Amino acid sequence: MKKTKTKCYLYTRVSTSMQVDGYSLDAQRDKLRKYAEYEDMVVAGEYSDEGFSGKNIQGRHEFQRMLQDIQDCKDGVEYVLVFKLSRFGRNAADVLNSLQLMQDFGVNLICVEDGIDSSKDSGKLMISVLSAVAEIERENIRTQTMAGREQKAREGKWNGGFAPYGYRLEKGELLIAEDEVDVIRTIFDRYIHTNDGVSGVAKYLNRQGFVKKLRQNGTIPGFSASFVKSIIDNPVYMGKIAYGRRRTEKKIGTRNEMHVVEQSEFPVYEGKHEAIISEEDWNLAQEKRKVNAYRREKVNDPTHAHILSGILKCPCCGKSLYGNIAKAHSKDKKTRYYYYCKNTVTPTGHECTFRLNIEQTEMNRMVASIISAMVSAPRFADAIKAKIGSAVDTNDLEKQLEALQAQLRQTLGTKTRLERQMDGLDVNDPYYDRKISDLQRRYDEQYGRIDEIEAQIDDVQSQIRSIRQKKISGDNIYRLLLAFDQVYEAASEVERKEFMRAFIERIELFPEKQPDGNWIRKIIFNFPVPVNGAEVKELPLENETMVETVVLLSQQKPDDTIEIDLDLDELDATAAETKATYEEIKAYVWEKYHLKVSNLYVSQIKRKCGLEVGQNYNLSKSENPKVPKCPPEKEMAIMDALKHFQMI
């Protein structure tokens, strides 16, 4: 009877530590195939992870697919062949756990170059020792790389990555980019010498027509608060080089999961590049950052949540509406909650004419009624059930990932070639010093490129995970929709807010309430939903039938309905007053005249011009209180502001 040949899998891997082993994927495959042929084994499958680190098995899709095939007893293999143990993994716990799982299904590991066979008595002991050594080796490689980058920082040199905005890289040195430097100087000047925060500075740049130059590490047009914050916090602009502002640390309670953590303290060295701003100005900016870096504590009803805050969009400027609170009225002792556009009250003078406060109870009930009307449709339940568990398409991202991994392999190959060229230089060559210096510079540049590509790979992998997670989240939302009325009714306001954020991307409003009582122009969902036999992500509410249904549902008032009685005098909302707030007037006076004026001075001049002013509830208790009069120069400046805002 003919003996059945032993079946095996081949597993190969390369990563940033490829130069240690000196073997490409093709070389590993060739070695393993020859070994299998020599041992009379049949190769039942080949698995290869290209450009993945061996620090853990997360993200190594081929490795995980191989383990799954072993658990499924797909091919009846008895061995997995790897070139060296370090190709199987560099984390001792992962190596041993994976090996134990394989042996549970009768599969052993053979490390060809190391001469290890886990089916032999001494094999598993050797694997335990060598996997621990491989983990130490990985940490040594990382430590040496980081030490080299820190040494460059100590020497005042740029230590890798793209040049920060305002600079350009030339032969590894930072030089001022003349087409970007004005933005940097303006950011620090506005932040230090005005009342603007990071958001205010970003809005100022966008309003004044500053153009952000797009580059590889900044592809988003326009200026954002996060961009301004990153500029202000970076000591490179005062001529320094920082090291370790962000560190990759292990997540507490996990075995191999890592995350990037901002460091509050890190070394800063004198740089060799030219500073854009003075050290004094940078320190002033940091002092203001510390003053502004606080979180307001919630002092109102802790059980109340602004359910649609951030989802509703202003019909004028397109920004998000947020929750606002009117303190309890003296008549009924009830606290009132509204949605409003906060851009109407910022001292930056954002041009937004939407001045209305929308009562939260009315708006919350209207949105819930729309969803209730949707899920009540006869075919809705069947359509939703069909969507749960359907597949997602990540082909484009997978192709992008493959392209990045190819770039990484190419960069690693360049790095390896440079190593060989340095090793092959003749020390007696009269140009040895110049050649080794040039090769070393190019070699160091590869680390920066590797870091950037690995960061992009991590980003794409995160997007793929996010899409798959979003699919899971979508399925959960769909399940909730099947029992929406019962679940939503029983949920707390916080839970309702979480549901709305998960289900709805944004809600666009009409500039004013429509005659039929409807505020909502369009709803954009996070996930496609079935409406009238079609799947849509956008639901326009200009259809008469839908609007009529929604309005009828929203007019079903529960027992705890809060009736709103607005006193316009108390709200200080005269026709002229709605043109500008006190803060906007004060900001205008400061920007144009560099004069600080109080609310008292503004109200005095408004009264003088015949404008209505809200009643002052903070009057002095003395019979003859001394009230300061507005000085002539400030009166002139306030009058100019009232004219600017067309209030007089």
Largest sheet descriptor: 5 strands, mixed
Kindly provide the radius of gyration, computed on alpha-carbon positions and rounded to a whole number of angstroms.
33 Å
Distance between the termini: 108 Å
- Give the fraction of residues assigned to helices: 40-55%
Give the class from helix and strand content and strand pairing.
alpha/beta
- By DSSP, the count of extended strands is 18
Strand fraction band? 5-15%
Strand order of the largest sheet: 2-1-3-4-5
| Principal-axis shape | flat
Whole-number average pLDDT? 76
Residue windows where pLDDT falls under 50 for at least 5 positions: 17-21, 344-350, 549-578, 617-622
> Which oligomerization state do the chains in this entry correspond to?
single chain
The number of distinct helices, counting runs of at least 4 residues, comes to 21
Task: Report on the architecture of this protein.
The chain is of the alpha/beta class. It has 21 helices and 18 strands. It has a five-stranded mixed β-sheet, with helices on both faces. A four-stranded mixed β-sheet has the order 12-16-17-18. The longest helix has 51 residues, at 432-482. The termini are far apart.
Q: Keyphrases for this structure?
A:
4-stranded mixed beta sheet, alpha/beta, 648 residues, 15% strand
Summarize the helices and strands and which ones pair or pack.
Layout: E1 6-14, H1 18-21, H2 25-38, E2 41-50, H3 61-71, E3 79-82, H4 85-88, H5 92-104, E4 108-111, E5 116-117, H6 123-154, E6 167-170, E7 173-176, H7 181-193, H8 198-207, H9 225-232, E8 240-242, E9 246-250, E10 258-262, E11 268-270, H10 279-292, E12 312-313, E13 321-326, E14 336-341, E15 358-359, H11 360-375, H12 380-387, H13 395-423, H14 432-482, H15 484-490, H16 493-503, E16 504-509, E17 520-531, E18 534-540, H17 544-554, H18 568-571, H19 582-593, H20 599-608, H21 632-644
Parallel strand pairs: 1-2, 1-3, 3-4, 12-16
Antiparallel strand pairs: 4-5, 6-7, 8-11, 9-10, 13-14, 14-15, 16-17, 17-18
Helix pairs in contact: 5-6, 7-8, 7-10, 8-9, 11-17, 12-14, 13-14, 19-21, 20-21
